[in-house]
Amino acid sequence: RDRPPRFINVAGSILPAFALEDMTGQQHAFPEAERTVVCFIKEDCPTCNLVMPLLEAANSSTKAITLTAGQTAEGNATLIERHGLTMPLLDDSTLKVSFAYDVETVPLVVLADADGKELDRLVGFDRKEWSGFFDKHLSDTQIDWDDYPEWRPGCGSLTQDPVIADRLRAEAENSPLRARKIEIAPSDDVHEFMFDQGFSDGLPVVPPTPERVIRMLEGTSRDSQELVATMPPNMAPATIEKIAVNAVLAGCRPEYLPVVIAAIEAICTDEFNCHGVFATTMGASPVMIINGPIRERIGLNVRMSALGQGSRANATIGRAVRLAVRNIGGAEPGGTERSTLGSPMKFTMCFGEWEERSSWDPLHVERGFDKNDSVVTVFAMSSGPTLIVDQNSRSAPQLAGSFGLSMESAHHVRAHNGGDGILVVCPEHVDTLERDGYTKADIRRRIQEVTTVPLKDLVADDVSGAGIDPARAASMTDDMLNRPLPKFASEDNIHIVVAGSDAGKFSAAFHGWASGPMGSIPVSRKIEV
């Protein structure tokens, strides 16, 4: 996936062409001769030092030209002085040629013809193989092979260093990166620069260096330039690469990237109405709930402090989505994001359901997925988590009634038929409910039951001007005014998950923004892992 073109290490492969300078500044190119021996070495490798006299002898042969590339300029100077070399050592301190040749072990010796086709190769040191190579291809050299050990292992190429390898991949000709690179002056503070450029949500961010973005892309098999979504409000293309950049900014690990991608796919649907969610003065924001095996794989917190700080996965996945909305979609406070007060959820709100803690169907199964699917579901919530404190109820009807009475305050006690709600049930409350055989459906029915009031109780009055306009109520019949109306338009608007510590009878609720086609509809997406 998105790897620079490498030759296959078999005889007959065409080797990459290159031109490198020696220590005097003279350029040497490959391929140019009838036959060329291309060598890769580094100064701190004992086996490379062992074979330096052999490479010097190869350089004196009339059978082929020898081009020896050292992986550091300082190392080349040391090798020349240490071994009294007369042959030129080429400077591959950028490691781009070593990378193009996919050098894993040094010393590496490759013989090629005038077309650059590989004829033979040596890796490390095996006296029998090296003597056979010289007898076959460099027969005019005089070497006493008894002076050499039978075998010595090679050393790891500098290109195998993870940090260096990521840089080389980022700089390669067909690097998966296409984003514009910004050069920052050495005297500038990179973190202050990113604040000044508006890349941050107000908290420090991780600089998205090419190396870090390359590592982040290892978290997915999808092409870096694949278009995931067109992101409002600017209707900008959100590619895998751009999402990876924001995942780096947020502090994600590569294994979180598939979750971030799926969440962005979900929020950019027409059903979720991303533009409306971020533009409303009501201050809505995505709440992400994750189900399935990926929870354990990425270390997502579903237990103590599941809705709070302390978990890298919970904190950074939600933050990456919000940063992407800001940096790709252009939703910034004071611009298209017009929230009156804002909310801590504008930074991040992502957690997992503790599926194993109850006998109930988890959220993603309720929404039509297989239990073994990894799924992210996004909700547009305007407030929460609001604590529901009930340490006294001993029966399921009592406890579910407490849930309903607490959730009745969403937006306003007189606001009925409004948004969706998320109920996060803590384990101790789960035990009380399950002891009486309550299911999620039973909880929903009980919430609707205890929040049902006649329409006349929702009319604005001297106590509060919120509610149904009195003039409108005056035009209603008694039957209309006595019509019972529950808090939520449907039981389907109440979403229930389990999370939290085993200790403490404290559940919580999130209050939704407007529901349905005129607002936002919850969206689930399967996570590609």
UniProtKB/TrEMBL annotation:
Protein name: Alkyl hydroperoxide reductase subunit C/ Thiol specific antioxidant domain-containing protein
Residues annotated as domain Alkyl hydroperoxide reductase subunit C/ Thiol specific antioxidant: 12-116
InterPro entries, per the entry: AhpC/TSA (IPR000866), Thioredoxin-like_sf (IPR036249)
GO MF, one example: oxidoreductase activity
Pfam family, one: AhpC-TSA
